Amino acid sequence: MKRILVVDDDIDILTVVQLVLESHGFEVAAISNWQQIYTQIDTFKPDLILLDVLLGTQDGRNICKQLKSSNDTKHISVILFSANHNVEKSVSECLADSFISKPFDINDLIEGINNQLMETNGFN
């Protein structure tokens, strides 16, 4: 079972995404506090991180860049998601693997995650 860490400071979105992903067979850890991300990575060992761009006082793009710059975490796929569509242009700069716009269609979310996991595992 693939593990997904979801990071979003909007509790409603976090809850919905967690329920949707679990109903599609993923093991999910959901956190609203970005400061917990490194602890969750160490304990949960996610295959993919779904990371909101705007996390209160922190920018998810900066977190993504840190994750992708570290030998310990660069192998983890990161999909950024945001309601700000202008953010999509900066996805490659922070080395994110993909971007999903909010609001998102549930089928598009699942397809995007599955596609990324397949690419990571060399099936694409």
Tell me what you see in this structure.
It is a single chain. The protein has 124 residues and is of the alpha/beta class. It contains four helices and seven strands; from the N terminus they run βαβαβββαββα. It has a single domain (3-119), classed as Response regulator (Rossmann fold). The protein has helices at 11-23, 37-44, 60-69, 106-120, and strands at 3-7, 27-31, 48-52, 54-55, 58-59, 77-82, 98-101. The longest helix has 15 residues, at 106-120. The chain is globular, with a radius of gyration of 13 Å. The protein starts with a strand and ends with a helix. The relative contact order is 0.17. The model has no long low-confidence stretch (mean pLDDT 91).
Order of helices and strands: EHEHEEEHEEH
- Secondary structural class: alpha/beta
CATH topology: Rossmann fold
Total count of domains: 1
CATH superfamily: Response regulator
Radius of gyration: 13 Å
Number of helices: 4
Shape-level CATH architecture: 3-Layer(aba) Sandwich
Largest sheet: 5 strands, parallel
Beta-strand residue fraction: 15-25%
* Cα-to-Cα separation, first versus last residue: 19 Å
Number of strands: 7
How would you write the strand order of the largest sheet? Answer: 2-1-3-6-7
Mean pLDDT figure: 91
The CATH class is identified as Alpha Beta
